[in-house]
Structure formats: structure tokens, C-alpha cells
Amino acid sequence: MVLRVDGEAFSGFVREVRPLLQRQAFLLCGDWQEAEDLVQDTLLRVYRAWWRLVRHEELTGYARTALTRTFLNERRRAQRRYEVASDMVRENPDPHDELAVRESRHTLIGALRRLTAAERAVIVLRYWDDLSVKATAGVLRIPPGTVTSHSHRAMATLRAVLKEEAS
User: Fold this and answer.
1) pLDDT in tens, the chain (167 residues)
2) Could you state, in order of their start, the residue ranges of all structural domains in the chain?
3) Scanning 90, 125, 140, 153, which has the fewest C-beta atoms within 10 Å of its C-beta?
4) E-state strands within the chain
5) Spatial separation of the C-alpha atoms in residues 124 and 139, rounded to whole Å
6) Quick count: other Cβ atoms within 10 Å of Cβ 158?
């Protein structure tokens, strides 16, 4: 028995969710090229599971969860090293951005890079995607108390880094 994916429905879903996934991926990893790779891997996972996903209204949540788990799995692989070649974060050029917004974004992305992968995932899910502690715990498959402690440590680190940058 061969199950086929409705190409138009999947293409429509990709057009709708791709910008959201790319922003989330960039916040997680801090690099546009790596973010694009994460999104591609995530969309492949969604494509493979498309036929068995009964409730298509929950696809965006499934895709966000798949993206976060893909990111964490990549970071756990010991043989792959992540190095940043410069202090500058390459951003997609946007002629409508003001300089102050760019500088703030650069500072925030730099601060996020100082967090562990797990802390960064918690911060992105909790404060960017606005998930509850329970929902974040479900996505990451960790206890809610671990979400809370990661969140607390990460916020303390971010405050210290941003305070250091401001002085």
C-alpha cells in the first residue's frame, strides 16, 4: 500500500509556516544558513509524517516541535562542532530596519549564543512562541521543573550579558 501526500496541501502549508520556522530556527542557532538547514530537515520530517497527521489544524505546533527537537538533536552530536567565525551575525538585509533595531537584534542574538542549547530552546519556546511551561516541557520531553530552572538560569545569563553590553 503506497500512501501519497497531497502536494498542493503540503505546499500551501510550507508557504504558510516557513517564515515562522525560519525565525524560530534563527533564534535557536543564531546563523541563517544553519537555520535554513534546520527548517529543511523539519519540513522533511513533517512531509514524512503528513499522511498520518490526522488533525491538520495542529500542524504548525507539530512543525515547531519537530524544529526544536531537530535543533537539540543536532547539538547533541559530539562529532559536530559549532564555531562562530566572527562577532557579527549575518542577517538578511532589510532596508526598512533602523540602525537601533539592528544593533538591539545583534546584541540579543549574541546574548542568546551564550546560552546552552537546552536553555536557548526553552527561552525561544517560552518567550518567543509564548508556550506555557507545561507545553514547553511537552515539546522538549523534560519535566516542567526543568523548564522552570532552565528558564531561570537562562534569563539570569541574558540579564548579565545585556547589562555587560550596555556598560
Assistant:
1) 444 566 788 888 899 999 999 999 999 988 899 999 999 999 999 888 887 776 666 788 889 999 999 998 888 764 455 554 545 444 554 545 565 556 677 777 888 888 999 999 999 999 888 899 999 999 999 999 999 999 999 999 988 888 887 77
2) 1-86, 95-167
3) 90
4) none
5) 12
6) 18
